């Protein structure tokens, strides 16, 4: 497939599930822009700058990926990037309802922009940024869950772990 695709999300922080979607979509599209959304209602653990840094370090091996952030309406950002496709990942039925709603409203706002869904790799179907944060908070063993550069940032955030 040709053209540019935008993969939007919170990436708080990027996980191996996200990275898998990025690697696979980079094989499908000429260029993939991974876009970190500012101004979410939920209180993030990492600042947008920290999330961008972690993403940049995690995708160094993929040449056709750009890391960026955006404010406001996704469709406006996609247009500004001259992209025609939005990429989203699907893990379970629980993701479906929200994604259907988002894809439908985006199609209504701009019928020329298509949402492209990629099924999670089975080994990451349980993986989310929230689960990673829980694990880091209590056990600190996040190996295999996040790209290796992210380990360090999680340790820094939660501090050294002491057995109690
Ligand atoms: P959002 O807050 O927009 O859902 P996330 O950073 O949580 O942002 O996720 C961004 C996208 O990546 C979403 O489409 C989500 O479904 C997808 N995603 C998250 N975790 C995984 C995973 N383990 N496997 C595949 N897709 C995933």
UniProtKB/TrEMBL annotation:
GO terms for cellular component: cytoplasm. HAMAP family: PPAT_bact. It is found in: Cytoplasm. Substrate binds at residues 10, 42, 74, 88. One of its GO terms (molecular function) is pantetheine-phosphate adenylyltransferase activity. InterPro entries: Cyt_trans-like, PPAT, Rossmann-like_a/b/a_fold. This is Phosphopantetheine adenylyltransferase. Belongs to the bacterial CoaD family. ATP binds at residues 10-11, 18, 89-91, 99, 124-130. NCBIfam families: coaD_prev_kdtB (TIGR01510), cyt_tran_rel (TIGR00125). Pathway: Cofactor biosynthesis; coenzyme A biosynthesis; CoA from (R)-pantothenate: step 4/5.
């Amino acid at each position: 497939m040709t053209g540019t695709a935008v993969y939007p999300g919170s990436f708080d922080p990027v996980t191996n599930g996200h990275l898998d979607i990025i690697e696979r979509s980079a094989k499908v599209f000429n260029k993939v822009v991974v876009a970190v959304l500012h101004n979410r209602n939920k209180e993030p653990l990492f600042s947008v700058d920290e999330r961008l840094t972690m993403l940049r370090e995690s995708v160094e091996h993929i040449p056709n990926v750009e890391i960026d952030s955006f404010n406001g309406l996704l469709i406006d950002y996609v247009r500004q990037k001259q992209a025609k496709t939005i990429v989203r990942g699907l893990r379970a039925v629980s993701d479906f309802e929200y994604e259907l709603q988002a894809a439908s409203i985006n199609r209504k706002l701009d019928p020329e922009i298509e949402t492209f869904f990629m099924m999670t790799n089975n080994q990451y179907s349980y993986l989310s940024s929230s689960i990673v944060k829980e694990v880091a908070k209590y056990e600190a063993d996040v190996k295999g869950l996040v790209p290796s550069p992210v380990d360090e940032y999680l340790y820094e955030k939660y501090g050294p772990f002491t057995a109690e």
